[in-house]
Amino acid sequence: MTVVERREIALVDLLDRLLAGGVVIKGDITLRIADVDLVRIDLNALISSVNARVPSPFEESR
Amino acid sequence: MTGLRYVYAVCRPYGTPLQAQLTGVGGDPPRLLPHHGLVAVVSHVPEADFSEEPLRAHLEDLDWLTTVARAHQGVIDALTTVTTPLPLRLGTVFRDDSGVRTMMEEREESFLRTLDRLEGRVEWGVKVYVESERTPETSAAPAPKPASGRDYLRQRRMQTKSQDDLWQRAETFATRLHETLSGVAEDSRLHAPQNPTLSGASGRNVLNAAYLVPRVKSEEFVEKVDRTKDDVPGIRVELTGPWAAYSFAGEAATGKEGP
Protein backbone atom coordinates (compact mmCIF):
# COMPACT_ATOMS: atom_id res chain seq x y z
CA MET A 1 0.00 0.00 0.00
CA THR A 2 2.48 2.51 -1.24
CA VAL A 3 0.12 5.44 -1.22
CA VAL A 4 -0.34 5.30 2.51
CA GLU A 5 3.35 5.13 3.23
CA ARG A 6 3.98 8.54 1.71
CA ARG A 7 4.06 10.68 4.82
CA GLU A 8 4.95 14.03 3.32
CA ILE A 9 1.70 15.95 3.49
CA ALA A 10 0.98 18.22 0.56
CA LEU A 11 0.27 21.79 1.58
CA VAL A 12 -2.95 21.92 -0.44
CA ASP A 13 -4.37 18.91 1.35
CA LEU A 14 -3.49 20.51 4.63
CA LEU A 15 -5.07 23.83 3.68
CA ASP A 16 -8.25 22.12 2.50
CA ARG A 17 -8.61 20.95 6.07
CA LEU A 18 -7.19 23.83 8.08
CA LEU A 19 -8.91 26.61 6.14
CA ALA A 20 -12.17 24.90 5.31
CA GLY A 21 -12.42 22.36 8.13
CA GLY A 22 -12.09 22.55 11.88
CA VAL A 23 -14.55 24.14 14.26
CA VAL A 24 -15.07 27.81 13.62
CA ILE A 25 -15.03 29.56 16.98
CA LYS A 26 -15.83 33.13 17.68
CA GLY A 27 -12.54 33.90 19.32
CA ASP A 28 -11.73 37.32 20.77
CA ILE A 29 -9.44 38.05 17.91
CA THR A 30 -10.48 35.79 15.14
CA LEU A 31 -14.18 36.44 15.13
CA ARG A 32 -14.13 38.15 11.78
CA ILE A 33 -11.11 36.38 10.42
CA ALA A 34 -12.31 32.88 11.10
CA ASP A 35 -15.80 33.49 9.86
CA VAL A 36 -15.19 35.54 6.83
CA ASP A 37 -11.70 36.04 5.65
CA LEU A 38 -10.27 32.59 5.92
CA VAL A 39 -13.08 31.21 3.91
CA ARG A 40 -12.95 33.96 1.38
CA ILE A 41 -9.19 33.96 1.10
CA ASP A 42 -9.92 30.47 -0.09
CA LEU A 43 -6.97 29.61 -2.19
CA ASN A 44 -7.20 32.50 -4.59
CA ALA A 45 -4.89 34.81 -2.76
CA LEU A 46 -2.52 31.92 -2.29
CA ILE A 47 -2.55 31.03 -5.92
CA SER A 48 -1.59 34.54 -6.84
CA SER A 49 1.17 34.46 -4.29
CA VAL A 50 2.42 31.20 -5.76
CA ASN A 51 2.31 32.74 -9.18
CA ALA A 52 4.18 35.71 -7.84
CA ARG A 53 6.94 33.36 -6.83
CA VAL A 54 7.52 32.04 -10.27
CA PRO A 55 10.99 33.44 -10.94
CA SER A 56 10.74 36.76 -12.70
CA PRO A 57 13.77 38.43 -14.22
CA PHE A 58 12.52 41.80 -13.01
CA GLU A 59 12.24 41.10 -9.33
CA GLU A 60 14.81 40.14 -6.81
CA SER A 61 14.09 36.81 -5.20
CA ARG A 62 13.11 36.76 -1.59
CA MET B 1 2.63 35.77 30.87
CA THR B 2 1.66 38.07 28.08
CA GLY B 3 0.84 37.05 24.56
CA LEU B 4 -2.28 35.72 22.92
CA ARG B 5 -3.64 32.20 23.04
CA TYR B 6 -3.65 30.17 19.87
CA VAL B 7 -6.04 27.23 20.23
CA TYR B 8 -5.44 24.06 18.20
CA ALA B 9 -8.07 21.74 19.47
CA VAL B 10 -10.43 20.78 22.23
CA CYS B 11 -10.35 17.27 23.67
CA ARG B 12 -11.54 15.26 26.58
CA PRO B 13 -8.89 14.98 29.29
CA TYR B 14 -6.35 12.32 28.39
CA GLY B 15 -3.68 10.52 30.35
CA THR B 16 -0.66 10.23 28.11
CA PRO B 17 1.53 13.34 27.91
CA LEU B 18 2.46 14.76 24.52
CA GLN B 19 6.04 14.25 23.48
CA ALA B 20 8.24 16.75 25.27
CA GLN B 21 10.01 18.22 22.24
CA LEU B 22 6.80 19.06 20.44
CA THR B 23 6.67 22.69 19.40
CA GLY B 24 3.61 24.45 18.13
CA VAL B 25 2.83 27.65 16.32
CA GLY B 26 5.51 30.29 16.86
CA GLY B 27 7.79 27.67 18.43
CA ASP B 28 5.83 27.64 21.68
CA PRO B 29 5.13 24.17 23.11
CA PRO B 30 1.45 23.33 23.28
CA ARG B 31 -0.01 23.56 26.77
CA LEU B 32 -3.16 22.10 28.24
CA LEU B 33 -5.87 24.35 29.54
CA PRO B 34 -8.48 22.25 31.37
CA HIS B 35 -11.96 23.50 32.02
CA HIS B 36 -14.71 21.28 33.39
CA GLY B 37 -14.75 18.09 31.34
CA LEU B 38 -12.70 19.51 28.49
CA VAL B 39 -9.12 20.42 27.72
CA ALA B 40 -8.08 23.10 25.25
CA VAL B 41 -4.66 22.72 23.68
CA VAL B 42 -3.08 26.16 23.32
CA SER B 43 0.15 27.96 22.53
CA HIS B 44 1.19 31.41 23.65
CA VAL B 45 1.73 33.52 20.55
CA PRO B 46 2.98 37.09 20.17
CA GLU B 47 0.48 39.89 19.63
CA ALA B 48 2.73 41.34 16.98
CA ASP B 49 1.89 38.41 14.70
CA PHE B 50 -1.46 37.17 15.89
CA SER B 51 -3.63 40.13 16.72
CA GLU B 52 -6.22 40.88 14.11
CA GLU B 53 -4.42 43.09 11.63
CA PRO B 54 -1.08 41.28 11.45
CA LEU B 55 -2.86 37.94 11.34
CA ARG B 56 -4.99 39.06 8.45
CA ALA B 57 -1.92 40.22 6.56
CA HIS B 58 0.07 37.08 7.39
CA LEU B 59 -2.65 34.81 6.11
CA GLU B 60 -1.98 35.98 2.61
CA ASP B 61 1.70 35.22 2.91
CA LEU B 62 2.10 31.68 1.72
CA ASP B 63 5.38 31.06 3.55
CA TRP B 64 3.95 32.23 6.84
CA LEU B 65 0.77 30.30 6.34
CA THR B 66 2.72 27.16 5.47
CA THR B 67 4.76 27.38 8.65
CA VAL B 68 1.71 27.92 10.83
CA ALA B 69 -0.28 25.22 9.04
CA ARG B 70 2.51 22.69 9.49
CA ALA B 71 2.92 23.58 13.15
CA HIS B 72 -0.83 23.35 13.71
CA GLN B 73 -0.95 20.00 11.97
CA GLY B 74 2.05 18.78 13.99
CA VAL B 75 0.20 19.40 17.23
CA ILE B 76 -3.04 17.86 15.99
CA ASP B 77 -1.10 14.86 14.75
CA ALA B 78 0.56 14.39 18.13
CA LEU B 79 -2.81 14.68 19.84
CA THR B 80 -4.23 12.07 17.51
CA THR B 81 -1.80 9.52 18.89
CA VAL B 82 -3.09 9.98 22.45
CA THR B 83 -6.74 10.98 22.06
CA THR B 84 -9.41 12.02 19.54
CA PRO B 85 -8.99 15.78 19.17
CA LEU B 86 -11.61 18.15 17.87
CA PRO B 87 -9.51 20.44 15.67
CA LEU B 88 -10.32 24.13 15.46
CA ARG B 89 -10.02 26.23 12.35
CA LEU B 90 -6.52 27.54 11.72
CA GLY B 91 -5.93 30.92 13.33
CA THR B 92 -8.32 30.72 16.29
CA VAL B 93 -6.85 33.20 18.77
CA PHE B 94 -7.93 34.50 22.18
CA ARG B 95 -6.64 37.32 24.34
CA ASP B 96 -5.96 35.19 27.38
CA ASP B 97 -6.71 31.94 29.17
CA SER B 98 -9.96 33.23 30.54
CA GLY B 99 -11.18 33.98 27.02
CA VAL B 100 -10.48 30.37 26.10
CA ARG B 101 -12.29 29.13 29.20
CA THR B 102 -15.32 31.25 28.49
CA MET B 103 -15.47 29.84 24.99
CA MET B 104 -15.22 26.27 26.31
CA GLU B 105 -17.95 26.97 28.81
CA GLU B 106 -20.27 28.39 26.17
CA ARG B 107 -19.79 25.55 23.75
CA GLU B 108 -19.27 22.72 26.18
CA GLU B 109 -22.36 20.78 25.20
CA SER B 110 -21.72 20.99 21.49
CA PHE B 111 -18.04 20.09 21.93
CA LEU B 112 -18.91 17.02 23.94
CA ARG B 113 -21.47 15.96 21.39
CA THR B 114 -19.03 16.36 18.52
CA LEU B 115 -16.26 14.60 20.43
CA ASP B 116 -18.58 11.65 20.98
CA ARG B 117 -19.40 11.57 17.29
CA LEU B 118 -15.71 11.61 16.31
CA GLU B 119 -14.39 9.29 19.00
CA GLY B 120 -12.34 6.50 17.45
CA ARG B 121 -12.79 7.89 13.92
CA VAL B 122 -10.27 9.21 11.46
CA GLU B 123 -10.54 11.08 8.20
CA TRP B 124 -9.26 9.75 4.88
CA GLY B 125 -8.80 11.96 1.83
CA VAL B 126 -9.43 10.59 -1.64
CA LYS B 127 -8.72 12.51 -4.82
CA VAL B 128 -9.40 11.54 -8.40
CA TYR B 129 -7.42 13.11 -11.24
CA VAL B 130 -7.90 12.98 -14.96
CA GLU B 131 -4.66 12.98 -16.85
CA SER B 132 -5.68 15.75 -19.18
CA GLU B 133 -4.93 16.03 -22.87
CA ARG B 134 -2.62 13.09 -23.13
CA THR B 135 -4.11 9.65 -22.79
CA PRO B 136 -1.58 6.83 -22.90
CA GLU B 137 -2.63 5.84 -26.43
CA THR B 138 -2.08 9.25 -27.97
CA SER B 139 1.20 9.88 -26.22
CA ALA B 140 2.54 6.50 -27.27
CA ALA B 141 1.82 7.14 -30.92
CA PRO B 142 1.93 10.83 -31.75
CA ALA B 143 -0.48 11.84 -34.47
CA PRO B 144 1.08 12.39 -37.87
CA LYS B 145 1.49 15.96 -38.95
CA PRO B 146 -1.74 17.09 -40.60
CA ALA B 147 -1.39 17.32 -44.36
CA SER B 148 -4.19 19.79 -44.80
CA GLY B 149 -6.58 22.02 -42.93
CA ARG B 150 -9.21 19.35 -43.15
CA ASP B 151 -6.83 16.74 -41.70
CA TYR B 152 -6.00 19.12 -38.91
CA LEU B 153 -9.64 19.66 -38.08
CA ARG B 154 -10.30 15.95 -38.14
CA GLN B 155 -7.42 15.32 -35.79
CA ARG B 156 -8.60 18.05 -33.48
CA ARG B 157 -12.07 16.58 -33.47
CA MET B 158 -10.75 13.15 -32.59
CA GLN B 159 -8.60 14.55 -29.82
CA THR B 160 -11.52 16.48 -28.42
CA LYS B 161 -13.69 13.42 -28.65
CA SER B 162 -11.20 11.23 -26.83
CA GLN B 163 -10.86 13.93 -24.18
CA ASP B 164 -14.64 14.12 -23.84
CA ASP B 165 -14.81 10.35 -23.50
CA LEU B 166 -12.19 10.48 -20.81
CA TRP B 167 -14.12 13.16 -18.91
CA GLN B 168 -17.22 11.08 -19.17
CA ARG B 169 -15.42 8.02 -17.87
CA ALA B 170 -13.80 10.04 -15.11
CA GLU B 171 -17.12 11.41 -13.97
CA THR B 172 -18.71 7.97 -13.91
CA PHE B 173 -15.66 6.58 -12.15
CA ALA B 174 -15.60 9.33 -9.51
CA THR B 175 -19.32 9.06 -8.84
CA ARG B 176 -19.11 5.31 -8.42
CA LEU B 177 -16.01 5.51 -6.24
CA HIS B 178 -17.66 8.11 -4.04
CA GLU B 179 -20.73 5.90 -3.64
CA THR B 180 -18.63 2.85 -2.81
CA LEU B 181 -16.53 4.69 -0.25
CA SER B 182 -19.53 6.43 1.29
CA GLY B 183 -20.86 2.94 1.94
CA VAL B 184 -17.88 2.13 4.15
CA ALA B 185 -17.60 5.58 5.70
CA GLU B 186 -19.88 7.09 8.32
CA ASP B 187 -19.87 10.47 6.68
CA SER B 188 -18.32 12.29 3.76
CA ARG B 189 -17.53 15.81 2.59
CA LEU B 190 -16.68 17.08 -0.84
CA HIS B 191 -13.96 19.69 -0.89
CA ALA B 192 -13.50 21.97 -3.86
CA PRO B 193 -11.27 20.44 -6.53
CA GLN B 194 -7.68 21.52 -6.06
CA ASN B 195 -6.02 24.03 -8.27
CA PRO B 196 -3.08 22.40 -10.09
CA THR B 197 -0.95 25.53 -9.62
CA LEU B 198 -1.05 25.00 -5.89
CA SER B 199 -0.96 21.25 -5.74
CA GLY B 200 1.67 20.79 -8.42
CA ALA B 201 -0.18 17.57 -9.26
CA SER B 202 -0.50 16.54 -12.86
CA GLY B 203 -3.92 16.18 -14.41
CA ARG B 204 -7.15 17.78 -13.35
CA ASN B 205 -8.62 17.11 -9.95
CA VAL B 206 -12.24 15.98 -10.39
CA LEU B 207 -12.96 14.56 -6.94
CA ASN B 208 -11.57 15.85 -3.68
CA ALA B 209 -13.43 14.08 -0.93
CA ALA B 210 -13.00 13.37 2.76
CA TYR B 211 -14.45 10.34 4.52
CA LEU B 212 -15.03 9.78 8.20
CA VAL B 213 -14.08 6.20 8.98
CA PRO B 214 -13.91 4.29 12.27
CA ARG B 215 -10.30 3.33 12.96
CA VAL B 216 -11.27 -0.31 13.00
CA LYS B 217 -12.63 -0.02 9.47
CA SER B 218 -9.70 1.94 8.10
CA GLU B 219 -7.96 -1.07 6.67
CA GLU B 220 -11.06 -2.10 4.78
CA PHE B 221 -11.47 1.44 3.51
CA VAL B 222 -7.88 1.72 2.32
CA GLU B 223 -8.14 -1.62 0.57
CA LYS B 224 -11.26 -0.49 -1.23
CA VAL B 225 -9.47 2.59 -2.51
CA ASP B 226 -6.45 0.58 -3.45
CA ARG B 227 -8.47 -1.89 -5.45
CA THR B 228 -9.98 0.79 -7.67
CA LYS B 229 -6.76 2.56 -8.39
CA ASP B 230 -5.69 1.09 -11.70
CA ASP B 231 -9.15 0.40 -13.02
CA VAL B 232 -9.39 3.07 -15.68
CA PRO B 233 -6.52 4.32 -17.84
CA GLY B 234 -6.05 8.09 -17.74
CA ILE B 235 -7.54 8.33 -14.26
CA ARG B 236 -5.49 8.50 -11.08
CA VAL B 237 -6.62 8.02 -7.49
CA GLU B 238 -4.74 9.42 -4.52
CA LEU B 239 -5.29 8.58 -0.90
CA THR B 240 -4.18 10.74 2.05
CA GLY B 241 -4.49 10.10 5.74
CA PRO B 242 -5.32 9.13 8.30
CA TRP B 243 -6.14 12.68 9.33
CA ALA B 244 -7.76 13.99 12.46
CA ALA B 245 -11.40 14.58 11.56
CA TYR B 246 -10.88 18.16 10.35
CA SER B 247 -13.57 18.00 7.71
CA PHE B 248 -16.14 16.68 10.16
CA ALA B 249 -15.51 19.00 13.07
CA GLY B 250 -18.47 21.23 12.32
CA GLU B 251 -21.91 20.41 13.62
CA ALA B 252 -23.27 20.24 10.09
CA ALA B 253 -25.89 17.66 9.28
CA THR B 254 -24.78 14.35 7.82
CA GLY B 255 -24.16 14.40 4.13
CA LYS B 256 -23.93 18.15 3.81
CA GLU B 257 -21.32 19.08 1.30
CA GLY B 258 -18.66 21.52 2.40
CA PRO B 259 -16.96 23.84 2.50
Describe the structure.
The complex is a heterodimer of chains A (62) and B (259). Chain A has 62 residues and is mainly alpha-helical. Chain A has one domain. Chain A has helices at residues 2-5, 11-20, 31-41, 44-53. The N and C termini of chain A lie far apart (39 Å). The two termini of chain B are 36 Å apart. Chain B has two domains: 4-118, no CATH class; 121-248, Alpha-Beta Plaits. The longest helix of chain B has 36 residues, at 149-184. Chain B is α+β, with helices and mostly antiparallel strands. Chain B has eight helices and nine strands. In chain B, helix 6 runs antiparallel to helix 8 (218-228). The interface between A and B is large, with 41 and 63 residues. Chain B: It is found in: Gas vesicle. Chain B: Pfam families: GvpL_GvpF. Chain B: Keywords: Gas vesicle. Chain B: Belongs to the gas vesicle GvpF/GvpL family. Chain B: This is GvpL/GvpF family gas vesicle protein.
